[in-house]
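Example record

The entry below shows one chain as it appears in the dataset: sequence first, then structure tokens.
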Amino acid sequence: MQALVLSDIGRFDLVALDDPVPGPGEVRIAVTQSGICGSELGGFLGTDGLRRPGLVFGHELVGAVDAYGPGVPVEHRLPPGALVTANPLRSCRTCAICAAGHGNVCPQRQLLGGHVHGSNAGLVVVPVSAVHRVDQLPDPGSSVFAEPTACALRAVGRTRILAGGSALVLGAGPIGLLLLEVLRARGVEQLFFTERVEGRVAAGEASGATRLSDDPAELVRQTKELTGGLGADAVFDAVGSADTRTAATLAARPGGDVCFVGLHSADGMLPLRDLIRREIVCTTSFAYSAEEFAQAVDLLGRGELVFRGEVVRAALADGQHWYEQLIKGHPVGKVVLQPSN
């Protein structure tokens, strides 16, 4: 099969690899779509601490059932060619963290395209338990956005935001756009967002959100002005810089929620005395549960959630080009690579 392999930091090569063989309880998928995730850009640059040269990236996928490994019961097998997506996050399911319902942060978790070869290839192998059939949904191809949508669903669920409330999203990249979409679908009436890249602004506005300044002081002033002097009920930082983390806390109303989602910077200082005095509830959100991934597949497939950013579909051979363009700040909302089997 053809695969896009990280041959060195900052360099992908399209190479021929042996077809992967599904093991016990596994299924092989012929990949038709593989999205580039923002988290993979750090792996390309050698800064994310997870991905290493020799790896095939890719964890947002749609493809067709190709072959099963041994031991998969007949009743768990889909017909060859059935269109599917797959939950790329694997937890051990046996540790105390998993037993407590936090499999998304299992210390032994593995990510497709992070710990094992991923979907930037003609074929990929995943556990049967990870597969979701999508060809019976009205829009099966939308499942390529299931993974970031699941992240957005979890983040919104980590806050107390209610229908009719107000919310601010910092950053209109893929996760930020999907946060706006989830908030809109849940009936949040006042939606605000920030975005420095002009080419992404229209997508944020398409969710019914109002763009605010990305200057921290002006952002806080505008948010309060538009919410009766209080601030937003919930603020989501989808960037993760020191500046956006601080701005998120300052833009929240007294007694409001702040959810930190973005991973851009490892550290940052927060105004803790102010947070205490205004009793701001700060939370974090990482990845998603199996139930949230399944919900994302269903909501996207039925059109209840829509990815409104610009989508570029490109050949696997163009992967190097698009990673470079995204690092330079290209405004495209999502790049989807299309392997040729």
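Notes for this example: The first strand starts at residue 2 and ends at 8. The radius of gyration is 20 Å.
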